[in-house]
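Annex B.
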Amino acid sequence: MPNRWKPNVTVAAIIERDGKFMLIEENTADGLRLNNPAGHLDPGESPVAACAREVLEETAYDFTPTGLVGVYLNRFTRTRTGHDITYLRFAFCGTLGEHYPERPLDDGIIGPVWLTLEELRASTERHRSPLVLRCIEDYLAGQRHPIELIHTDASVAQAAR
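Phosphatase NudJ: predicted structure tokens.
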């Protein structure tokens, strides 16, 4: 099969503190959007390691994933190019650690913002994807799976060398 379908693998962090959720504001082709701290799985990396890395790059906070909230499949068409893209997202909850305010954030990232559930629901037109709210609602419903459910074989790290 020369044109095998391959969804883009992404990770996302669901971070709650004092009844508010950390999101990031980012500049996109569709304007300023809200997203969970999230990004793509890099070669040689486990989903758990990718989530910790993405949170650090987008928020300048350490993050330790402790549970899998869910695995999500989402499809949309890019506004600029018309490309049909599918994402397979692993969403994690965990522990927020040390903040490094001097650390630069990824290109396009304005920074983290803390929103209540009501504020999140009132801002859905600014969400980068429908998964932003869905992952948080699943988290609030108590959906948690052991992080050990995800196994990354040692061959993944070897292939990146």
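The CA atoms of residues 5 and 64 lie 32 Å apart. Helices lie at 47-59, 117-122, 131-140, 154-159. Further annotation is deferred to the next reporting cycle.
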